[in-house]
Amino acid sequence: VCSLLNNLIEIKSDGFKILMAHQRCHRDHPDGIGTWVHAFTLLGYVAVATNVTIVGFNSGVLQRLYPGISPFYTLVAVVVVEHLIVSIMVGIAAVVPDVPQHVAERAVARKKAQRDAEFDQRSARLQSAAVGHKAFFDEATVDETEMGRLETDEAAGTTTIATDKWRKWVVEEKIRRRVLEKEISTMNAIYTAWIDAEKDKARRLQAELDALTTKKTA
C-alpha cells in the first residue's frame, strides 16, 4: 500500500515538475537509430559465434551424435554451422528491406512536395523583387532626361559627388536586376528539366507495368 501510494504521488509530482517547472526539449524526427544499427548487427554476429561455440564444446550434443569426434572436427563443425547461420542472416538482411516500399514512396512524395513549395516561394520572392526593380529602374524611367535634370539641379546647387553617387547607384541596381532575372530564368530551366525527367521516368515505369501486365495476361 505504501509503495502504491508512493508511486501515485511520484507520478503526479514528476508530471508537475516536467510540465510546469522545466522546459521540455524539442522533439526531432530522426530517420533511424543511427550507429546503433551497426552495433546491433555486430552484436548479432558475436552472439551467433558464442552460442554455436557453447553448443559445440560444452553442451555435449556433438559428442552424443558422434561419440568418437575429436576436438579438431568439433571446431570444424562449429565453424561450418556458424558460417551457415551468418549466411542466413546476411541473406535475410539483403532480401527484406529496411524500409517498406509504401513508406519509402510516401517519404519521396513528401520531400518532393517540400522542394516544390520551397521552389515556388523562392521564385515568387525573386519575381516580386525583379518586378519592383523593373518598375523603378526601367530604361524609360532612368534615361538621359533624368540625368539632365540632375545636371540642372547640380547647376542650381547640387554637388557633383551626389550626381556621381546617383549614377553609380542606378548602375548597380540595374546589374542586380539583371542578376535576379538570370537567376529566375536558370531556376525555371532547372525546374523544367526536372519535370521532364520525372515525366520520362513515369513513362518508363508505365511501360514496364504494361509489359508485365501483358506477360501475365499471356
TrEMBL record:
UniProt keyword terms in alphabetical order: Membrane, Transmembrane, Transmembrane helix
GO molecular function, one term: chloride channel activity
Subcellular location: Membrane
The keyword RNA-binding appears for this protein: no
Keyword field contains Membrane: yes
Main location, first listed in the record: membrane
Any single Gene Ontology cellular-component annotation: membrane
Membrane topology: Multi-pass membrane protein
Domain Anoctamin transmembrane: 1-106
Domain of life: Eukaryota
Transmembrane segments: 36-60, 72-96
Protein name (database record): Anoctamin transmembrane domain-containing protein
Lineage of source species: Eukaryota, Sar, Stramenopiles, Oomycota, Saprolegniomycetes
